[in-house]
Amino acid sequence: MSKFNRDILFLIFEVLRNDSKSLFSCLMVNRFWCETVIPILWRNPWCYDINYKNKDYLFIIIISYLYNDINEFLTRQEIQLPLLVSSQSLMFDYLSFCRSINIQTISTIISIGSPLDYIQFNLQQEFYSLFIKKCPEFKYLDMRSIKPQIFHFPEAKACLESLCELKCDTFIDSSYFYGLARLCQYIQRLVIFNRNTNVNHGIAKLIEVQRNLKYFEWIDGLYRNLYNPYREILLAIEKKADIINHIKLKFMYDDITLRQVIPKLHKLKTLIVTCFGDFNKDQLNYHDLVVIKIAHITLYDVSTIIESSGGHIKEVSLNFFPKMLNTDDFDKESLLFIRKIYKKCPSIEYLSLIFSPSKKNFAEFEKLLKICQNLKSLLLHVYDPYEEENNEKMLEYGEEILKILIKSNPINLREIRFFDHFKFSLEALEKFLGSWRGHTLSILTTDSIYERKYYKKLINKYKNNCVIKDFKCESPMNVEDMDFKI
Between vectors from CA 126 to CA 122 and to CA 130, what angle results, nearest 5°? Predict the structure, then answer.
């Protein structure tokens, strides 16, 4: 492999760009590999799952660029730099590869130099001035907890006008966003963490000036806002209806403006909403929809959205909440939901499926498994409000589910999640695992019975036979959350 040409090596390392351990190992092979890896590692050196507080070498690298300029200042402050630091000590021009700034991570690295606020403030000014001078352009900016207004530096315009991704929070003063709005008008991905009790008008202005906004995400913190924090932001998003493709809204409470705006975003490919509310269902037409992840929605409503889709849906993830379940028409609605899935989503890969344990529903579930052969992850919830405390009935339903899975043999299925009152006898579970012919399975359940000795013995047997990869009991919240990884 050491004889691969640089282009092939670069493509291999690009696949590993988020795997810092593998990339660091590749650095040690030889100089040729090192020269190929360094530009990838330093494109976004703040994104790795490491403790930056302990990375003295990052502080040394950055301070080396500033050695001549601030050495006298640091000496006056009685800050002793490592002997390794000098203007001639760097093997590569690392910052020339950098395309990102992460305020929190850089602040952590700066704190290595000194615990004093005054020193850290001065180092921040020097660091950001250096980054803007050395980095030809920025693609990613995480400005949570920002203090210096980096867009005031003379070279900021040239660096920031190509910004593609921005992460920020509402606690930042609006003036920061007004400054960014003047420079950055081609942001494609915007992620906002709501930490304030007031409306941030600067964020709304930043959204308004964008010409290529594809992805918008809002994540509420623990604050209950005294004022409506969503209205102005959502109205700004509404003006981007012709370009925005992905919406992810983690709202703490329902908002009437959301009901007005969501139906107008007709080009959505991803619709992820925690507070969906009541809509005019005739307006929910998303022909390009690929991902649906919605809480607080009835099966009938989600079936309506699926019906109007263009057949591209890969994921349907739902939260099983009382409004979905407590309905006189649940049996009919669950039957309709299953049918809409296999008719309109034949290529679906991730599915939350809740249905009534009627013969028709079981038959339609089997049909779904035979048609939707691309299924990779399946969350199952059989709901019978009259029998949920009846162990015999729940064992009967569980056995029927396992029989259908054996008979249908969905060959691409890698993960099954059993929600709430699912129960399997030891004999039924062993028959299922002994008959499984698909991929090695990961199984999640909410029932702790499978942690008992006789179940553990059976599970370990099929782990050793490579039928099971994992078999875990988790909280209902984790089992229901398709983003929770085993």
Answer: 170
What are the structure tokens assigned to 128, written together? 């950001």
Question: Which residue stretches of 114-209 are H helix?
Answer: 117-134, 156-160, 174-183, 201-208
**330-344 helix and 359-371 helix, angle to the nearest 10 degrees:** 10
pLDDT tens track for 270-311: 999 987 666 666 677 889 999 999 888 888 888 989 998 988
User: What whole-number percentage of the chain has pLDDT above 90?
Assistant: 38
What are the residue ranges spanned by the domains of the chain?
1-41, 278-486
Nearest to 171 by CA among 243, 122, 104, 260: 104
Mean residue pLDDT of the chain comes to 85
Distance CA 187, CA 162 (A): 8
Yes or no: say if 362 and 402 are a contact pair by the CB < 8 Å rule.
no
Contact between 469 and 485 under an 8 Å Cβ cutoff? The reply is no
Quote the pTM value.
0.85
User: Each residue of 152-182: b (16+ CB within 10 Å) or e?
Assistant: ebeebeebbeebbbbbbbbbbebebbebbbb
Please give the C-alpha separations between residue 226 and each of 181, 198, 284, in angstroms, as whole numbers.
26, 7, 30
- Place domain 278-486 in its CATH homologous superfamily: Ribonuclease Inhibitor (3.80.10.10)
Q: Which two tokens mark 8?
A: 């092939």
Q: How far apart are CA 366 and CA 379, in angstroms?
A: 15
Exposed/middle/buried for residue 341 (C-beta within 10 Å: 0-12, 13-18, 19+): buried
Task: Kindly report the backbone phi and psi dihedral angles of residue 342, in degrees, each rounded to the nearest multiple of 5, phi listed first.
Answer: -75, -20
pLDDT at position 297, please? 83
CA nearest to 149, candidates 178, 113, 192, 119: 178
Q: Is 90 exceeded by the pLDDT of residue 433?
A: yes
